[in-house]
User: Fold this.
Amino acid sequence: MKRLSILWVVCLASIATLLASCGTTQPPTTAQADTRAQDETTIRATAADWGKAIEDKNLDQTLSYYADEAWVYPQNAPIAKTSDQRRSVWAAFFATPGASDMEGNIERIEVARSGDLAVEYDTFAMTMNDKKGKAVTETEKSVVTWKKQADGKWKVIADIWNTNK
Assistant:
């Protein structure tokens, strides 16, 4: 009888150990590295290159900074939701009479903790001709939303600008 009791204790202990080992333990989580500072630097450099393409009135290069799904919100015009519409917006912008001396300043960039989205806040000025053909300088502001693509490159998914008037 004593031997049977010991056998029961051993059996129950084995079952308890087995059940305990079947618990759902979570693997240790690895914290995602904070790449916001590096991403901001990358976006600043990319935005500078994009600004150069705009200043040079290089239509194809300018458009290459947009993701396929990007929307552009130009002032006093409908939203450009397709690549053809974006092309039309920028072609019209580059054809602005007297458009020159485009100079911009990135005021700040905020990168999401997730590392896949960022928002850029800008001010810029440009010279263009008014209705009488006189050169005038117009100051504007913009907000650009960037999204990190699968290949790690940052592309614009939303772009809006308007004047300070």
About this structure: The domain at 36-163 is CATH 3.10.450.50 (Nuclear Transport Factor 2; Chain: A,). DSSP finds four helices and five strands in the chain.
